[in-house]
Amino acid sequence: MQSSDAPTRADAERPDPSRIERLCVERGLKMTGQRRLIARVLSEAEDHPDVEELYRRAVTLDAKISVATVYRTVRLLEEKGIVERRDFGGGRARYDPTDRGHHHHLIDVDTGKVLEFEDPDHEKLAQAIAKRLGFTLVGQRLELFGRRAPVAPAPRPPRPGKIRG
Known about the structure:
About 35% of the residues lie in helices and about 15% in strands. The N and C termini lie far apart (about 105 Å). The longest helix is centred in the middle third of the chain and has 13 residues, at about 65-80. The protein is α+β, with helices and mostly antiparallel strands. A hairpin with a 5-residue loop joins strand 1 and strand 2.
């Protein structure tokens, strides 16, 4: 007879919990199979997906998942402080896991690509501005919107001229 504490076959086949799944458990969320899947997809994302993109990724792993489940789960993760909603333009909210640490974003307005960056000089400037205005900085968010500068064409070598004699 098997003890109730003994691992089951399903437990053996389940991958280790994702970082977001661990955060969910730490914050007291009940983890259903579909929530685990959404947490895993978010943990593996290297970009800042919107709900529709999360759904596209999740449905390839579980055809039974619904877009409504993804919306509900993302809203719950946002309420628990596990993900943050970002507005990078384009009329759709995108999501950034809070466990990535403090960073800023540069958004390419032509492609929608989001580049994450850290900048110690910006951090010092933000602190200095807050102090100058009589505040203690408790948080900040920087989102820059830009367009790649056109690359100047390489100069052509001079064309050989006719030699006159």
